[in-house]
Predict the structure.
Amino acid sequence: MCENIYKPYLMVIDQIVEETADVKTFRLKFKNQEDADKFSFKAGQFGEYSIFGEGESTFCIASAPTRKEYIECTFRKAGRVTNALANAEVGDTVGFRGPYGNTFPIEQWEGKNLLYIAGGIALPPMRCVIWNTIDLREKYKDITIVYGARSVADLVYKHELKEWEERADIKLITTVDPGGQTPDWKGEIGFVPTVLEKAGLSSANTIAILCGPPVMIKFTMPILKNLGFEDKDIFTTLENRMKCGFGKCGRCNVGKLFVCKDGPVFTYEEMKVLPAEY
Amino acid sequence: METIKKLIRKQSLEKLFTTLSASRKVYAPVFAADKRVEYKYNPAFAEVTFEHIQSTLSVKNVVFPKVENLMYYTNNKVDSTITDIDLTKIPEVVLWGSHPCDNSAYDVLKSIFCWDIKDEFFAKRLEKLVVIGLACHQSDAYCFCTSVGLTPNSTKGSDILLSKTKSGDYIAEIFTEKGNAIVAASSDLFEQPNNEEIVIAEVKQTFNHEQVTEKLKTAFEHPFWVANSLRCIGCGACAYVCPTCACFDIQDETKGKEGRRYRSWDSCGFSLFTLHTSGHNPREVQSQRWRQRIMHKFSYMPDRNESLGCVGCGRCSRGCPVDMNISEQLQALQNI
């Protein structure tokens, strides 16, 4: 029989973490060991997750390829599929197709400092590459993570933020928007661009990986430029509505590029020549 | 294989058609209500038209059905299962009397479905398709195949191409082994041609597609798009009648615990097409969507798929409820 490229793997929900009131992380394991053995992916890639009867939804793989035997995804309850996913329980079967898209070129980053900047629900698409480089810690120089959310309650991966904070070989700066702090909040208070500017960082031998809402990107870019980052050293991962995941259904294109095939990872150098269709 | 030329008499076509119909699915054009031309599976030969200019819908559905099941599932929470589609059951289809524009479109569709990862749903259907094309001996003001590098008797995509002679018989040019097998099985119906003169429609070239492609490289922000799409109502008809539009949606449909995942034709003219769950829409107004349609066919596809996304059939212009004529728009675009 020919290969059906639309047929998902059957996955079992192995673990559910409630990140915030409306954000969950699923750990998914392959139902068939054969599928698990064949499967591999790289940091930055995404997939189509489905609840049968509700449809498919697109998210990045949020776990690192260095962690075998499972994949994780983090999603916000927003539409039909994510609401159905949010109602699923440990042990339920879901569908997964992937991996699709290009990857963060982490081999090319070896020997450099890495500066990760994320806002809100944009940490999940970066979590994979963050853990991937942390798991290969000796290959990179300084690793800095700047992460902001509207409020303390909106911060995802709280247990991991704690782990990163405690590690001497990772510099973590967390911030919440003014008014979003709690009495015991020890992190920064302020928007990501402002906090980034105050952090006294340098662009020397450094790659910046940036992901967040458009307004955060808009105000962060000038700061990175002021710090002296070149366009080719700033990476981001884009999202657009997708159906197929492999450049056929025709909706995720930005100009002539498909986010699903040519992306989702783009450098700022590649992005700035694209029309604003994302 | 080398092209073979034969003559088939007008009165022998029925025999050929009925022979083919007896053993396989033959998809042929017939006149339906209101002079609409539709394709039907195995119609009576008397119904089949050789005099149509254009069918309302294209014949892309033989390789890319309007709705196609991608898999079946049962949703039992813990014990959900998937049943695959048996693509070996796709039947052979003989497409009869389709015009060169439509036949050329299969290559365009292939450049979408088979680039990078191969879509076996499409590829298997194309493999099982035999095309007996009919060169155009008449055209109308909407036809513009000559503007997109084709002609009323382009041979691309046809296994056999029939061209009407002045006396009403047909010259059959055979290009492929698939076509040759059909001719060989009914060899008594074919004769050696004798320099019969064929009748070919005249289609005036209205624009230069290479110039259009060149112009589009710098036209993304041009006011042309707003000015020329103000009357577009976003109905998507242009995409549904188009032989090369391949954009699709994927949806689930469930009854009880069982259901199917299918794909169906979609259109870049719809606002929902690109709408994010957050409410953000990268193409939020109709002019952006109209621009996408033209850019995709005349700029992105020549660049990425080495193929224009248009065969000049004119259906989008004939079918447009607000009379947006693509040929006229491209003529205008060429001169901005």
